[in-house]
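Re: your question about Gluconate 5-dehydrogenase

S., sorry for the slow reply, the queue was backed up all week. Below is exactly what I fed in.
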Amino acid sequence: MKNYFDLTGQVAVVTGCSTGLGVQMAKALANQGAKIVAMARRKDKIEAVAKEIADTYKVETLAVQCDITDTDRVNAAVDEVLAKFGRIDIVINNAGTGAVAPAEDITDDQFNGEMNVDLFGTFKVARAVAKKAMIPAKYGRVINIASMYGLVGNKIAGSAPYHAAKGGVVNLTRALAAEWGKYNITVNSICPGYFYTPLTKETLDSDFFQQNAKTMIPMERYGNEGELDSAAVFLASPASTYVTGVNLPVDGGYTCM
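Result:
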C-alpha cells in the first residue's frame, strides 16, 4: 500500500514554532516521519518544542533561534540547518504578528512592523531556503501561512496592516510559484480562519465571537486544534506534486460568502 503522505527522511523547517498553530503543524509533519527544525525567537520555547516532538514522534529535531526580520540571522539559521541535516525539503512560513486598531489610528511603526514580519520576513526565509537548499536540490515545498484576511476585509477588528501584509503573502506565493516551478519547487499558502489556540480560546468563546461565528461562518464555529494539520501535510507531501501557486482557505467557509 502506498502512503501518499509519507515524509520519512525529509527535513521540515517551521518558523513561529514556539506556540499555537506552528507547533501543531510541526507535530503533524513529525507524525508523518519528517525531521523537524523548530525556528522562532524564544530559545527556551523552541528547545522545549523540539524535545517534546523528538520524544513523542521519535524523529530528529533541531531548535534554531531566529528573528526572521534579520536577514543575516535568517541566512545563518539556514546554514545551521544545512550543517546538521544537509537538506531542507519543506519550509512552513508561519511566523507572524498582528496590529489591531482602527485604520485611521494605525501608526507608521505598526504598519512597518507588520510588513517586516508577515511579508518581508516570509520572503527572507523563502529566499534563503530556496537559494541555499531547494534550488540546488531541484526539489522543495514552500508553504506560506497567509490568512483568510489576506483575501477579504473585516468589520470586527480593525487590522489594516495585517490585511495588507497577508494579501501580500497571497500574491508573493503566486510570484514565487511562477518563478521556482522550473526547479521542481512548489509554493502554496494556507489561509486559516480563526482557530482555537491557548491564546485565542478566551476571545473566541466570548458571546460576541460566538455570535459572529453563527453569522459569518457557514460551519457556524471556529477551527479546532488539528483542523489545519491535514492541509499542511498535503501541501508538504508527495501527494501535491502538481499543486502550486494555490492559496487554500481553511476557514469553515468564511471566504465563500
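The beta strands are 11-15, 35-40, 61-65, 90-93, 140-145, 185-192, 247-250. The chain has a mean pLDDT of 96.

Happy to talk it through on Thursday.
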